[in-house]
Amino acid sequence: MRSASDDRSTLPIGVFDSGVGGLTVLAALRRRLPQEAMIYLGDTARVPYGPKSPETVASYTGEAVAHLVALGIKLLVVACNTATVHALAALERDHPDLPILGVVEPGAMAAAAGSKSGRIAVIATEGTVRSGAYEAAIGRIRPAATVEARACGLLVALAEEGWAEDAIAEGVLRRYLGPLFERDPHRAPDCLVLGCTHFPLFTPAIRTLFGPWVTLIDSSATVADAAADLLAARGLLRAGAAGVRTIRYLATDAPDRFARIASRFLGEWIAPTIVERVLLPAPSATL
Predict the structure, then answer these.
(1) pLDDT at 6
(2) Which of 107, 145, 229, 255 could join 219 via S-S bond, C-beta 3.0 to 4.6 A?
């Protein structure tokens, strides 16, 4: 019989993001796994990851994840599309005994299953789009699908400013997505992957502009479902009733700003005093 000291199910889930966008994943995990404790680490000192080189993203992600692992976690969720694309393989190699989930594969699986026509659009950051990760992942699952990916970097800033549902957001969305959806319906996608963790905040605006017929894939929800399935399969679900969880917030810079944005993303007051600032090692001079 396992002793209490050996019971890894009581350890928290570690959630990593390049900044604050992964809070949408944290929110989905809390809804899906209300009994679990969690630690969220946002690398706010070095955000954004999207325009950075793959080597730099992998280095930054590795440093942040090493910090989470040292704190003790039972599952790592890489709640950043760019970090998933450029660092997931290295993380799996460096931490072979730790279950790890990225956001790309669950989103790709949901898109492949959710599109009736096989015409799928992906909106993401520049780094994720440039990698072709979603096209490759969807292609492995549904080879006949056609995938169009668009970099929509301005949406990140709008989400963090709290402007996801106003006229500015609608104008930017129309500029980005109009060429995809405002054309011959026989060529338009019927499925849109929100391939950045900030982008679920734009769901109401996208529905207003392009109608209810477009299937939206929110990677935060698909990752939360995948996390629940993985923990159950490994016997790592935490026993007990909902409401006993604890959430620990870590940021590498500007905890006040992190708390302000977290309050908006999570729909509840996050006091700046509970956000811990952590210092990660400086990036290698060779990068």
Answers:
(1) 60
(2) 107
